[in-house]
Amino acid sequence: MLRRLFVSAFSSVVAATASALYPAGPARAQNADPQRKPLPEPEPIVVDHATVDRAQRLLTAVAHDAFDRSELLPQLGAFVGHDFFVKGAAFVSALGPAQSMFPFEERIMADQTWTFFRVHYPREVLTWVVGVDPGNRITLLDLRRGPTNHIFNVAWRDIQY
Predict the structure, then answer these.
(1) Quick one: which of 133, 143, 128, 150 has its CA closest to 77?
(2) pLDDT tens digits for 130-144?
(3) Exposed e or buried b for every residue in 106-120, given b needs 16+ CB within 10 A?
(4) C-alpha Rg value of the chain to the nearest Å
(5) HEC sequence for 91-146
(6) In which element (H, E) is residue 19 found?
(7) Any residues with CB less than 8 A from the CB of 124 and at least 6 apart, and which?
(8) Predicted model pTM
(9) Assuming Cys at both sites, which of 22, 59, 109, 116 could form a disulfide with 105, CB separation 3.0 to 4.6 Å?
């Protein structure tokens, strides 16, 4: 019992001493530097108008819970329930209307093409990714703040071992 008390008291004393010696460390880590500039905007790329129009239409449809599930790849449509799009609409519509959108990257893979769009909302800037297969069926819809911070994401990949 005495040993357990000593160990817990010792670690508390060490923590208190460290915070007294370095009081600004945690505060500095939590508060972002107001002088820090955001990452630069990517340069727009040229893609056909049909791709841009479809991406805008899809984002609007997701935000208003008016998404046409027949546009999904059948394997993806079978996997994703209808309530997923209802919940997604709540998150996406809370961002407000998109003020502008432009393509900035396109990744072509063996079975999919992903087009990345920069979307400016009233309070933040996000990335909208639309993936399609060679038949122009949707394989990916992803609205994100960063590579691992997804607001809305539905994706299908054919992984064969």
Answers:
(1) 133
(2) 999 999 999 999 999
(3) eeeeeebbbbbbbbe
(4) 23
(5) HHHCCCCCCEEEEEEEEECCCCEEEEEEEECCCCEEEEEEEECCCCCEEEEEEEEE
(6) helix 2-21
(7) 95, 145
(8) 0.74
(9) 116
